[in-house]
Specification:
The complex is a heterodimer of chains A (141) and B (276). Chain A is an all-beta fold. Helices cover 3% and strands 33% of the residues of chain A. The longest helix of chain A is centred in the middle third of the chain and has 4 residues. The chains are: A mainly beta (141), B alpha+beta (276).
Chain lengths: 141, 276
């Protein structure tokens, strides 16, 4: 998650937008979700102001595309059951993201899933109406 | 003087050398009691809550306050998550039209990233708070930016603007009304933000009421006024809930800051994108 460090321009002042205007998400398409399958973690940056998940994703042509996915701050995730070791290089995951508007291989985390079904964040696939939206940290390694 | 007289004089002198200072000291002790140095220890005001507010607190019902232990990715755009966050972000204040017009014509340069939170934006901090309470002072700390407010409860007045350097957090003095703590904050650093695009003025004033709800919850009503800037008082509430067994964590905003801002204040992201 983003720190409130004033990313909204003054032109937006009179209209709307949070007072501290930190969380602009200006670089993300928040209306779109993309699922990356068979993504392999190359690095999990357990840091503030955001954690970052670095991934190699098969490009369907025999090679890989490297993706950088932004997730919440340690200050938040650590209190939601995440750990420094929740993701390790070599982990293979399915991951849902809001993609970058620019079309570059980057995005913001929606949720991810391990092959054994354990999840972090929101479900990768949108849940059916009425189904529970999230998982307990006990379910996560 | 003969020898015996000299000895006598010398003996009297020796006694006097001891007795006289004692007499003087005792006399001055009587006289000095009303002039003894004042204690440097502050005197508390009357009143106060039944509970001690010292401890770690989080925004109630926020992503840090998951009572059922579930794990969520923050603000990922899905309705089921955003519904819990809708009150987390502060609505901006309503500026006087001439102020808004002036700012639109000549926008302030975006503040540097990692600017320390000033008041009332201190309350936009989303991570853990810590309250340290004594009878004469309450400190309120927010992890985002390691910011600490000091609320003085010893009856001191606000200082003159030139007597004590104005702070971005202002100068806060409080008093008790029953269990409620009422805090008055003035003397703001006019180089620091009141809200996006607007700095404090010398007329900025913030009044807060900390209302305990039982032992584990405090509702904070925050009202900000500034007759030069705001069309109406800027009001919001923060609901704090105790979160025991949560240690305060570091927050270094530049530890791994991959979100540079452009000249218009829009955030971007640094991604590593070599294609193999």
């Amino acid at each position: 998650m983003k720190a409130p460090f004033f990313a909204v321009s003054v032109a937006m002042l009179a209209v709307a937008g949070p007072a501290a205007a930190h969380h602009s998400n200006a670089w993300l398409d928040m209306q779109k979700e993309v699922i990356l399958n068979d993504a392999v973690v190359t690095e999990f940056q357990w840091t503030n102001p955001h954690t970052w998940i670095e991934l190699d994703v098969p490009d369907g042509k025999g090679g890989v595309t490297h993706w950088s996915i932004e997730a919440g701050a340690v200050s938040g995730l650590a209190r939601q059951g995440w750990k420094r070791t929740s993701l390790k290089p070599g982990d293979k995951i399915r991951i849902a993201i809001h993609p970058m508007k620019s079309g570059q291989p980057g995005g913001g985390l929606v949720g991810l899933e391990f092959p054994d079904g354990r999840r972090l964040g929101s479900p990768v696939d949108r849940p059916a109406p009425g189904a529970p939206a999230s998982v307990k940290p006990a379910d996560v390694k | 003087m003969n020898i015996r007289q000299q000895c006598l004089v010398w003996s009297i002198a020796k006694v006097a050398a001891v007795a006289l200072p004692l007499a003087i000291m005792s006399a001055s002790a009587q006289a000095a009691a009303p002039q003894s140095k004042p204690s440097l220890i502050s005197k508390p005001l009357k009143g106060g809550p039944r509970a001690d507010w010292t401890g770690t607190w989080v925004l109630a019902d926020s992503f840090l306050d998951r009572q059922d232990g579930t794990a969520l990715a923050f603000r990922n755009g899905r309705e089921e998550n955003d519904s819990q966050y809708k009150d987390m972000f502060l609505a901006p204040p309503k500026l006087k039209p001439e102020v808004a017009k002036r700012l639109a014509a000549a926008p302030m340069a975006p503040p540097r990233q990692c600017t320390p939170l000033s008041m009332p934006l201190f309350w936009s901090g989303l991570y853990a708070f810590e309250i340290i309470q004594s009878r004469t002072q309450i400190n309120v700390f927010q992890e985002l930016g390691d910011r600490t407010r000091r609320i003085y409860l010893d009856g001191r007045p606000h200082p003159g603007l030139d007597d004590v350097e104005p702070l971005g957090l202002g100068h806060s003095i409080g008093h008790w009304e029953g269990d409620d703590l009422v805090v008055d904050t003035t003397n703001f650093n006019t180089n620091m933000l009141l809200a996006v695009g607007v700095n404090h003025t010398e007329k900025t004033r913030i009044v807060e009421r900390f209302r305990p709800v039982g032992d584990d919850r405090i509702d904070v009503d925050v009202t900000t006024t500034d007759p030069d800037l705001l069309a109406e008082p800027w009001k919001f509430v923060r609901h704090l809930r105790r979160k025991p067994n949560t240690d305060i964590m570091d927050y270094d905003c530049q530890e791994n800051n991959r979100n540079p801002m452009d000249a218009e204040g829009r955030e971007h992201a640094i991604i590593q994108s070599p294609q193999k």
